[in-house]
Amino acid sequence: MTAADGLEGLANLLATPAQLSSSSSSLDGIPADLETSIRFAGALLTQAAGVLLRLPQDVVAQAIVIFTRFWIGPDGGSLAIHSAKDVSAASIYLMAKLSFHPTSPRSVLNVYSYLLSKEASPLWFINPSEELEDNPKPESYYLSEGGYQTQRLSLLKMETIILRTLGFNTHVVIPHTIALTYLQTINTTGSALAKRVFEHLNASLLSPQLLYVTHQPNALAVASIYLAAREVGVKMVEEEWWEVFDVDREELGFLVVAMNSMEVFSKSERDVWSGTPIPLTVESLEAELAKRKKAQDGE
């Protein structure tokens, strides 16, 4: 991964073309569409956990970026070896610990026990039926003391694996604050516009194009402002204002299209996995692969 020269403080490490062309999961025989779906579900799981843990969105966003980075390239983590749910939990625990809002292993594991419960989880990719009882039984997501101690060791081990895989580089710049600064700079403000900008930035964390590891935060900020202004009906200056923030027209166009496609992508994922949970463990992934092979052999 590379960072923009001279902008280390406001830039992120970006995935190289070689890293994007192949992943450890693909080398282990995981189909690209399945890998995309699991990354998508893992990012959604991380977001939901962050909300329940009452963490600021910037910490949650950083955790999702770390989760995404972990799977990048042939030297990254493989879904055939590491469960996405474990990487998600360790990512949010790690980034919370490095922030002003640390949270305990017990809190993280209790939240994940609830979110991963097929009887109690409100998440569609865990509980596809989405038919929840008004008061689901606590037994369905209760984490015993023995279970906690075992999972705590696994959480800390996964944290170490993530750090080693990323070369202990956990620097993540989130574009949200940058976007607000740009809005003030070009004298374009408004709660509706700012809200829509943030919506696009948060949705882009789930992008199948991996926008947060392929583009710098200043470009993400500019693209979200450009798209949000068109949607909200805010008139921008006629000049090519994005060039002031070091973003060219080609990059802006790609990002706008990618951000604009997130709603369609999300809906298509729900359609593809309708009635079936997305595999977030190694065991469930193996079962899904066996199911696909059986279906293919039967054709």
Estimate the strand proportion: under 5%
CATH-defined superfamily of the largest domain: Cyclin-like
Number of helices: 14
What's the CATH first level of the largest domain? Mainly Alpha
| CATH fold field value of the largest domain | Cyclin A, domain 1
Mean pLDDT across all amino acids: 92
Write structural notes for this entry.
There is one protein chain. With 299 residues, the protein is an all-alpha fold. It folds into 2 domains: 23-172 and 277-290, Orthogonal Bundle (Cyclin A, domain 1); 175-260, Cyclin A, domain 1 (Orthogonal Bundle). It has 14 helices and no strands. α6 (105-115) crosses α7 (145-165) and α8 (175-185) packs across α11 (217-232). It starts with 16 loop residues before the first helix and ends with a helix.
SSE layout and pairing:
Blueprint: H1 17-21, H2 24-27, H3 32-52, H4 57-70, H5 84-97, H6 105-115, H7 145-165, H8 175-185, H9 191-204, H10 211-214, H11 217-232, H12 249-260, H13 262-272, H14 282-298
Main attributes of the structure:
disordered N terminus, cyclin-dependent protein serine/threonine kinase regulator activity, Cyclin A, domain 1, 59% helix, mainly alpha, 299 residues
Put the structure in a nutshell.
The protein has 299 residues and is mainly alpha-helical. The protein has 14 helices and no strands. The N terminus is likely disordered.
